[in-house]
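cron nightly-structures :: item 1 of 1
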Amino acid sequence: MKKLFVLLLSLMIIISCGSDEKKNESGNDSTESQSSIEAPGEFEAASGIDRNEAFALNYEIPQGQKMTYKLTSVATTNQKIIADSTITNEVSQTLNYIFNLESLGQADNNTRVKISIESVEISANYNGEVVSFDSKAINDEQTNLKFAEYSSLPNQSFDVVINNQGRIVEVNNITGIVDRYLEIQQAPAIKPEEREQINSQLKEQALKPLVQQLFRYLPEKETNIDSTWDLVYESPMGLYNLTNTATSTLRDVVQKDDNLVAKITTDLNVTYEGDGYIKQGEAAYQFEEPKIDGNAITYFNIEKNIVIKSELTTTTEMNVVVTAKNPSGVTETARRSDLSVNRNFIELLKVN
């Protein structure tokens, strides 16, 4: 049975191929989400609003407008492996980012935004092992190396291009981040092709999904209250191909500081393709269809074209059964279950 434990523990690579965009766009209107981001009296009823009136929701951010955001990501994972005995693992992690943004202007229905990450804080518990990191602290080389993907981000600017609907189409000018990353890794002199590979990975696998969390998908045309719009995208998860449909609804138009604010909710529907079966050597794995649920609520300033607050939650459950023969030739079975909950909170701290 020890062999089955090893096989199940080694499954992380197989089942961890999820989609960051799924987390960024999922959700529906829930009482819990609404109450947790609304301070009493923060939003007021907007007078004179016709529910049939059409509102323009887009990211045409005026050139020179500056924003500061706090992004908090809270992730928890509970894992259980059941064979002739049971192993339970629990992981929790909280990430806090402070972003400074400045609009560099619009062109061709896109807005270029300069971004700098002011700070990164990490607090985590990996099955009883407590880990923390604060980029604002004076960290030694060993600490910076351990958290290289985070310690290379602060005090380096880059820019992104977003379309009017809030999708990031380009990430540019990350030379400073790459240089700092290589400095921390003590590998400043590398081959051009290796540098380009790191450049591409940081853009597509780190910066793009991270910054995308600050923006929400908006409709292509003017929208009235109770209207909906969809974002459909595909993503892999383990042995399944997922088709994600995020349906957003303009629930209401309220008011904050004399500005009209759109209250938007989103609901995620996921369909699957694949049989979830794989055989590797003498071991066979049968993955059940993942169970994915999400809820979100966003407040979007219609006049300044930016998110004020947003909270989104996704819950993912994955189960797999592995069978393999022991040294005596007897077939044994074990089961692994993973339950992950991810919550992202966005808060606008300052705009000018």
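cron nightly-structures :: done
The longest helix spans residues 192-212.
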